[in-house]
Amino acid sequence: MHPKWVIAASPEPTHDIAIVTLAAPESILDFLNQYIELPEQPFATTTAKRAFWRRIQRNIKELLATEGYFTPQLTLQDHWEDDTTPSIISIEPGPLTEINTINIEFIGEIAKKEAKYQQHIQHLLESWLLKEGDPFRSSDWEKAKSALLSEITLEKYAAASIETSKAAVDPDTAQVDLSLIIDSGPAFYFGELDITGLERYSSEIIKNFMLFRVGDPYNREVLHRFQIALQSIPHFKSVSVSITPDTTQYKAAPIHVVVTEFKSQRIAVGAGFSSNNGARGELNFRNHNFFDRAWYLNSTLRLEQKRQTFVAGIDTLPNQNNIQYSLDTSLQRTDIKNLETIKQRVGLTRNFRTRVLQNQIGLIWQRENKRPSGADNQINEALVLDWRWRYHHVDNPLHIRQGNVAEIQIGGGSQHVFSEQDFIRSYGRYQSWWPVGQNDVFFLRAEAGYTLAQSRFGIPQEYLFRAGGIHSVRGYDFNSLGVREGNAIVGGRTLATGTVEYTRWVIPKWGAAVFADLGSAADKWQNMHAFLGYGAGIRWRSPAGPLALDVARSHETGTLRFHFSMAVAF
């Protein structure tokens, strides 16, 4: 089958008739049109015409060579003297060159005869992108070399380089022989930190985040994770972590850490809206060097239509074992579904964090003034020993396509130790994202909770359960599913909800979703009545995170409700 030939339309000329057009197989015409500029005005002289013909022949042949065509034939239908007929450059690209042989050699330490080195080389060869018989293109050749070099420099061989690179083309047979010699250089090992940019803080603030020890083999991914860990703390505006691949220092390569500090104190204001709690205004004060010890003081006054909160907390920096301590206190008033609560809280927690895991244990005292409309007011106090475990592994924290989040909470108090009642609260949640095709995402969420106690009375609302609203059961108001007490909806001792959602990303930043939520909260499992909500919404990948606007229908009443949220609930 002969290739389909097409005559390209010249860019819209200022002259009424195109001066020159290209005629070539469709497979290469679009490629040539990206890089070839054709004249838009008649040539002033015969010399200019000849210069153009020499130049365009050279340019077309060079471009086609990058795509694997090394024997093109160009002919010119010359109509230079005819202003009504364009000249046509016909291009026969010739056969597409294929890869005949590939020869890759390694020198340097990686070429040792021991089995572990030979296994490493075999792994590298298996990851090589090009195969014999593949079409040869310069871009693919360069991409394959870069990928191989990147793979070698990932671990140990930071100074690896391409010693020689050759592509020998035989135009007669339309075949190419590829040869490559990679010099791994010596194996590198981590040396001491070389830190610049610190003004307010000691070097310990950086050393505590080290994921390696001096003398460990070099690993580029470990350095990258080290940089991400430093970027995650609020003390630094920018962080750069690197080594210089100097072969004279391979036994202890210095780790260069360059930081730019934030100002130690900042005041911020903000505003927002959520369909759960209404409009929001916020005032925040932060001190990243509290008591000159690099402790993090964060205090926030947040005023929402249904909830008003003041919170202040102090966090120490993680030590070398990834352990940090937090002391926080808060005062909060809520008025949701005819239940008004005023809560005071003080807590001390010990946190262990890694890139994907968080393990927290804390001692929390809470006093709650509970005022349900149409029922008796209550004062509930509890001293709770609380344990939380969380696993978080997603591909992109802001715009997730694949990953899992799991969380378990267990806590309780005793009436013998500053609590109104004996109780044990348990809670679990699981969320999972699966990519579907190139763009779509399937999301699954499930949660369940149970508070073991003789009754709900005397237990603060934080250790009971309500459902409804965003990240719960859409189609129902926020915290509207629970136990009726007078005219109010209060927390019960049982909870179970779940979500299935499918998002179709129509264009990169905009998508549409369909979903169904099911669940409820009650005082006993026997009293649990599952409420169903379903609907659809739009999604926007904003710079600050995913934004969702949903319209959901309550299966019980047929009522439609709008739900607005920003960011993923972890």
Descriptive report:
By secondary structure, the protein is mainly beta. The chain contains six helices and 28 strands. The protein folds into four domains: 5-92, membrane protein fhac (Ubiquitin-like (UB roll), Roll), CATH 3.10.20; 98-183, Ubiquitin-like (UB roll) (Roll), CATH 3.10.20.310; 190-261, Ubiquitin-like (UB roll) (Roll), CATH 3.10.20.310; 393-566, Porin. 13% of the residues lie in helices and 49% in strands. The longest helix is centred in the first third of the chain and has 21 residues, at 46-66. The two termini are 57 Å apart.
Task: Give a short synopsis of this structure.
The chain has 570 residues and is mainly beta. It has helices at residues 26-35, 46-66, 115-126, 138-154, 204-207, 220-231; strands spanning 5-7, 20-25, 73-77, 87-92, 98-107, 161-170, 175-183, 190-196, 236-243, 253-261, 265-274, 278-290, 295-304, 307-315, 323-336, 339-353, 357-372, 378-394, 403-413, 423-436, 440-452, 483-485, 488-490, 494-507, 510-522, 531-542, 545-554, 560-566.
Our Rg estimate from Cα atoms comes to 33 Å
The level 1 CATH classification of the largest domain is Mainly Beta
What's the pLDDT, averaged over the residues? 91
Largest sheet geometry: 16 strands, antiparallel
Low-confidence stretches: 9-15
Strand content: over 45%
Distance between the termini: 57 Å
Q: Do you know the CATH architecture of the largest domain? A: Beta Barrel
Q: What is the total number of structural domains?
A: 4
Secondary structure: helix percent: 10-25%
CATH topology of the largest domain: Porin
